[in-house]
Design brief:
The chain is of the alpha+beta class and about 280 residues long. It is built from 9 helices and 12 strands. Strands 2-1-6-5-4-3 form a 6-stranded mixed sheet. The chain has a 6-stranded mixed sheet with strand order 8-7-12-11-10-9, with helices on both faces. A hairpin with a 4-residue loop joins strand 3 and strand 4.
Length: about 280
Amino acid sequence: MSQENIEVIERAVAALNERDVDGYLACCTDDIQLRTPWAAVEGVYEGSQAIRRFFADLRDTALDFRLTIERADPIGANRVLVFLRATGSGRASGIPAGGMAGGVNDPSAATEVPTANIYDFVGGKIASIRIFVDRAEALEAVGLQEYAMSQENVEDIVRSIYSKWQRGNFADVRFFDPEVVFESVMPDSSERVVAHGPEGVEAFMREFLSQWRDYRVSGRDFRQVGTKTVLVEGHQAGTGRRSGVAVESPMFSVWTFRNGKVVRLIMEFDRSKALKAAGLRE
Protein backbone atom coordinates (compact mmCIF):
# COMPACT_ATOMS: atom_id res chain seq x y z
CA MET A 1 0.00 0.00 0.00
CA SER A 2 2.93 2.37 0.45
CA GLN A 3 3.17 3.48 -3.18
CA GLU A 4 -0.62 3.65 -3.48
CA ASN A 5 -0.74 5.94 -0.44
CA ILE A 6 1.89 8.22 -1.93
CA GLU A 7 -0.12 8.44 -5.16
CA VAL A 8 -3.20 9.45 -3.14
CA ILE A 9 -1.16 12.20 -1.47
CA GLU A 10 0.06 13.43 -4.85
CA ARG A 11 -3.55 13.68 -6.07
CA ALA A 12 -4.59 15.51 -2.89
CA VAL A 13 -1.75 18.04 -3.19
CA ALA A 14 -2.60 18.62 -6.87
CA ALA A 15 -6.25 19.17 -5.92
CA LEU A 16 -5.23 21.65 -3.20
CA ASN A 17 -3.09 23.61 -5.65
CA GLU A 18 -5.98 23.71 -8.12
CA ARG A 19 -8.47 24.61 -5.33
CA ASP A 20 -10.46 21.50 -6.29
CA VAL A 21 -12.14 20.73 -2.98
CA ASP A 22 -14.18 17.82 -4.37
CA GLY A 23 -11.05 16.23 -5.81
CA TYR A 24 -9.33 16.72 -2.46
CA LEU A 25 -12.19 15.16 -0.50
CA ALA A 26 -12.19 12.18 -2.87
CA CYS A 27 -8.75 11.34 -1.45
CA CYS A 28 -9.95 11.50 2.17
CA THR A 29 -12.17 9.60 4.57
CA ASP A 30 -15.49 11.19 5.58
CA ASP A 31 -14.09 12.05 9.02
CA ILE A 32 -10.81 13.48 7.72
CA GLN A 33 -8.93 15.56 10.29
CA LEU A 34 -6.52 18.32 9.26
CA ARG A 35 -4.28 20.04 11.82
CA THR A 36 -2.54 23.18 10.57
CA PRO A 37 -0.28 25.67 12.40
CA TRP A 38 -0.46 28.42 9.75
CA ALA A 39 -1.76 31.54 11.44
CA ALA A 40 -4.66 32.44 9.16
CA VAL A 41 -5.96 28.86 9.00
CA GLU A 42 -4.64 27.61 12.32
CA GLY A 43 -6.50 24.86 14.11
CA VAL A 44 -8.24 21.56 13.50
CA TYR A 45 -10.57 21.01 10.54
CA GLU A 46 -12.58 17.80 10.95
CA GLY A 47 -14.99 16.33 8.42
CA SER A 48 -15.82 17.25 4.83
CA GLN A 49 -17.65 20.47 5.67
CA ALA A 50 -14.71 21.69 7.72
CA ILE A 51 -12.37 20.91 4.81
CA ARG A 52 -14.59 23.02 2.56
CA ARG A 53 -14.27 25.83 5.10
CA PHE A 54 -10.48 25.35 5.09
CA PHE A 55 -10.43 25.79 1.31
CA ALA A 56 -12.52 28.96 1.68
CA ASP A 57 -10.22 30.28 4.42
CA LEU A 58 -7.20 29.51 2.26
CA ARG A 59 -8.71 31.31 -0.70
CA ASP A 60 -9.47 34.39 1.40
CA THR A 61 -6.12 34.66 3.17
CA ALA A 62 -3.39 32.99 1.09
CA LEU A 63 -3.51 34.03 -2.54
CA ASP A 64 -1.43 31.82 -4.86
CA PHE A 65 -0.65 29.37 -2.05
CA ARG A 66 0.86 26.17 -3.43
CA LEU A 67 2.57 23.04 -2.18
CA THR A 68 5.38 21.17 -3.95
CA ILE A 69 6.34 17.68 -2.83
CA GLU A 70 10.08 17.15 -2.30
CA ARG A 71 10.01 13.59 -1.01
CA ALA A 72 7.60 11.08 0.53
CA ASP A 73 8.71 8.35 2.95
CA PRO A 74 6.35 5.56 4.05
CA ILE A 75 6.37 4.98 7.83
CA GLY A 76 4.83 1.55 8.14
CA ALA A 77 1.81 0.50 6.09
CA ASN A 78 -0.57 3.35 6.87
CA ARG A 79 1.52 6.46 7.47
CA VAL A 80 3.57 8.65 5.14
CA LEU A 81 5.95 11.48 6.05
CA VAL A 82 6.13 14.07 3.28
CA PHE A 83 8.59 16.93 2.92
CA LEU A 84 7.10 19.82 0.96
CA ARG A 85 7.76 23.44 0.08
CA ALA A 86 5.00 25.97 0.55
CA THR A 87 4.81 29.15 -1.49
CA GLY A 88 2.29 31.94 -1.46
CA SER A 89 1.63 35.65 -1.54
CA GLY A 90 -1.20 35.66 0.95
CA ARG A 91 -2.02 38.62 3.13
CA ALA A 92 -2.12 36.55 6.32
CA SER A 93 -1.04 33.06 5.38
CA GLY A 94 1.16 32.58 8.43
CA ILE A 95 4.13 31.61 6.24
CA PRO A 96 6.88 34.06 5.29
CA ALA A 97 5.14 35.45 2.23
CA GLY A 98 4.20 38.96 1.19
CA GLY A 99 4.68 41.54 3.91
CA MET A 100 5.86 38.90 6.35
CA ALA A 101 8.77 38.00 4.10
CA GLY A 102 9.81 41.19 2.43
CA GLY A 103 8.70 43.78 4.94
CA VAL A 104 5.51 45.80 5.18
CA ASN A 105 6.12 47.53 1.86
CA ASP A 106 6.28 44.34 -0.18
CA PRO A 107 2.83 42.69 -0.02
CA SER A 108 3.21 40.82 -3.29
CA ALA A 109 6.45 38.96 -2.58
CA ALA A 110 6.26 35.18 -2.34
CA THR A 111 8.72 33.10 -0.38
CA GLU A 112 9.30 29.35 -0.39
CA VAL A 113 9.16 27.64 2.98
CA PRO A 114 10.11 24.05 3.84
CA THR A 115 7.36 22.16 5.68
CA ALA A 116 6.50 18.56 6.55
CA ASN A 117 3.16 16.72 6.68
CA ILE A 118 2.29 13.43 8.32
CA TYR A 119 -0.52 11.58 6.52
CA ASP A 120 -2.34 8.69 8.20
CA PHE A 121 -4.44 6.33 6.09
CA VAL A 122 -7.51 4.17 6.64
CA GLY A 123 -8.78 1.94 3.85
CA GLY A 124 -6.54 3.57 1.26
CA LYS A 125 -7.76 7.10 2.01
CA ILE A 126 -6.28 9.95 4.04
CA ALA A 127 -7.76 9.93 7.54
CA SER A 128 -5.61 12.62 9.14
CA ILE A 129 -3.04 15.22 8.16
CA ARG A 130 -0.69 16.98 10.56
CA ILE A 131 1.24 19.96 9.19
CA PHE A 132 4.58 21.00 10.69
CA VAL A 133 6.52 24.19 9.91
CA ASP A 134 9.53 22.58 11.61
CA ARG A 135 10.64 19.41 9.83
CA ALA A 136 12.59 18.23 12.86
CA GLU A 137 9.35 18.19 14.87
CA ALA A 138 7.71 16.04 12.19
CA LEU A 139 10.63 13.61 12.29
CA GLU A 140 10.33 13.42 16.06
CA ALA A 141 6.58 12.82 15.78
CA VAL A 142 7.20 9.67 13.71
CA GLY A 143 10.03 8.47 15.94
CA LEU A 144 12.90 9.52 13.70
CA GLN A 145 14.39 12.25 15.87
CA GLU A 146 17.83 10.65 15.65
CA TYR A 147 17.74 11.28 11.89
CA ALA A 148 16.41 14.83 12.12
CA MET A 149 19.73 16.52 11.47
CA SER A 150 20.72 14.19 8.64
CA GLN A 151 17.44 14.81 6.82
CA GLU A 152 17.80 18.58 6.70
CA ASN A 153 20.44 20.79 5.17
CA VAL A 154 21.55 23.85 7.06
CA GLU A 155 19.46 26.22 4.95
CA ASP A 156 16.30 24.31 5.87
CA ILE A 157 17.21 24.57 9.55
CA VAL A 158 17.60 28.35 9.26
CA ARG A 159 14.33 28.63 7.35
CA SER A 160 12.53 26.68 10.07
CA ILE A 161 13.92 29.03 12.73
CA TYR A 162 12.86 32.10 10.74
CA SER A 163 9.35 30.66 10.34
CA LYS A 164 9.09 30.97 14.14
CA TRP A 165 10.85 34.31 14.43
CA GLN A 166 8.46 35.92 11.98
CA ARG A 167 5.62 34.88 14.31
CA GLY A 168 7.41 36.36 17.34
CA ASN A 169 8.62 33.02 18.74
CA PHE A 170 12.30 33.36 19.70
CA ALA A 171 12.38 30.65 22.39
CA ASP A 172 13.66 27.68 20.39
CA VAL A 173 17.43 27.29 20.81
CA ARG A 174 17.68 23.52 20.32
CA PHE A 175 19.70 23.95 17.10
CA PHE A 176 22.31 26.00 18.97
CA ASP A 177 25.58 24.30 19.89
CA PRO A 178 26.57 24.44 23.60
CA GLU A 179 29.45 26.68 22.53
CA VAL A 180 27.43 28.95 20.24
CA VAL A 181 28.49 32.60 20.01
CA PHE A 182 25.69 35.06 19.26
CA GLU A 183 26.59 38.59 18.16
CA SER A 184 23.99 41.22 17.33
CA VAL A 185 23.55 44.92 16.74
CA MET A 186 20.69 46.53 18.65
CA PRO A 187 17.77 47.74 16.50
CA ASP A 188 17.74 51.26 17.94
CA SER A 189 21.47 51.93 18.35
CA SER A 190 24.93 50.94 17.18
CA GLU A 191 25.58 48.94 20.35
CA ARG A 192 26.79 45.37 19.83
CA VAL A 193 25.94 42.51 22.14
CA VAL A 194 27.71 39.16 22.41
CA ALA A 195 26.16 36.15 24.16
CA HIS A 196 27.68 32.71 24.72
CA GLY A 197 25.92 29.36 24.86
CA PRO A 198 22.18 28.65 24.49
CA GLU A 199 21.54 29.87 28.03
CA GLY A 200 23.27 33.16 27.28
CA VAL A 201 21.25 33.59 24.09
CA GLU A 202 18.00 32.83 25.94
CA ALA A 203 18.85 35.32 28.70
CA PHE A 204 19.68 38.03 26.18
CA MET A 205 16.48 37.42 24.20
CA ARG A 206 14.29 37.56 27.32
CA GLU A 207 15.80 40.88 28.32
CA PHE A 208 15.72 42.22 24.77
CA LEU A 209 12.13 41.21 24.02
CA SER A 210 10.90 42.70 27.29
CA GLN A 211 11.70 46.12 25.81
CA TRP A 212 9.61 45.64 22.66
CA ARG A 213 6.07 45.01 21.51
CA ASP A 214 5.34 42.89 18.45
CA TYR A 215 9.01 42.43 17.60
CA ARG A 216 9.45 40.29 14.48
CA VAL A 217 12.31 39.18 12.25
CA SER A 218 11.48 37.83 8.80
CA GLY A 219 13.68 36.38 6.08
CA ARG A 220 13.41 37.21 2.38
CA ASP A 221 16.49 35.71 0.73
CA PHE A 222 18.28 32.61 2.05
CA ARG A 223 21.68 31.78 0.58
CA GLN A 224 23.70 28.74 1.59
CA VAL A 225 27.44 29.34 1.32
CA GLY A 226 29.28 26.06 1.11
CA THR A 227 28.05 23.38 3.49
CA LYS A 228 28.33 25.18 6.82
CA THR A 229 27.18 28.79 6.35
CA VAL A 230 23.86 30.47 5.56
CA LEU A 231 23.37 34.16 4.78
CA VAL A 232 19.88 35.61 5.24
CA GLU A 233 18.63 38.96 3.99
CA GLY A 234 15.51 40.03 5.83
CA HIS A 235 13.67 42.61 7.84
CA GLN A 236 13.03 43.49 11.48
CA ALA A 237 10.17 45.48 12.97
CA GLY A 238 8.98 46.32 16.45
CA THR A 239 7.69 49.08 18.73
CA GLY A 240 9.56 50.25 21.80
CA ARG A 241 7.55 49.35 24.89
CA ARG A 242 8.45 52.58 26.72
CA SER A 243 9.02 55.00 23.87
CA GLY A 244 6.20 53.84 21.61
CA VAL A 245 8.54 54.43 18.67
CA ALA A 246 8.23 51.98 15.78
CA VAL A 247 11.48 50.67 14.37
CA GLU A 248 11.82 49.00 10.97
CA SER A 249 14.98 48.17 9.08
CA PRO A 250 16.72 45.58 6.95
CA MET A 251 18.37 42.83 8.96
CA PHE A 252 21.04 40.40 7.78
CA SER A 253 22.15 37.28 9.57
CA VAL A 254 25.06 34.89 9.08
CA TRP A 255 24.76 31.36 10.49
CA THR A 256 27.73 29.03 10.88
CA PHE A 257 27.16 25.32 11.58
CA ARG A 258 29.21 22.48 12.97
CA ASN A 259 27.85 18.93 13.07
CA GLY A 260 24.36 20.21 12.37
CA LYS A 261 24.38 22.80 15.17
CA VAL A 262 24.73 26.59 15.06
CA VAL A 263 28.13 27.56 16.47
CA ARG A 264 28.04 31.24 15.48
CA LEU A 265 25.21 33.63 14.63
CA ILE A 266 25.89 37.22 13.60
CA MET A 267 23.13 39.81 13.08
CA GLU A 268 23.99 42.90 11.03
CA PHE A 269 22.27 45.99 9.64
CA ASP A 270 25.02 46.51 7.09
CA ARG A 271 24.87 44.22 4.05
CA SER A 272 28.58 44.57 3.27
CA LYS A 273 29.51 43.49 6.80
CA ALA A 274 27.18 40.50 6.55
CA LEU A 275 28.68 39.48 3.23
CA LYS A 276 32.18 39.74 4.69
CA ALA A 277 31.16 37.62 7.69
CA ALA A 278 29.84 34.99 5.28
CA GLY A 279 33.10 35.05 3.28
CA LEU A 280 31.49 36.80 0.28
CA ARG A 281 32.06 40.00 -1.64
CA GLU A 282 29.70 42.62 -3.05
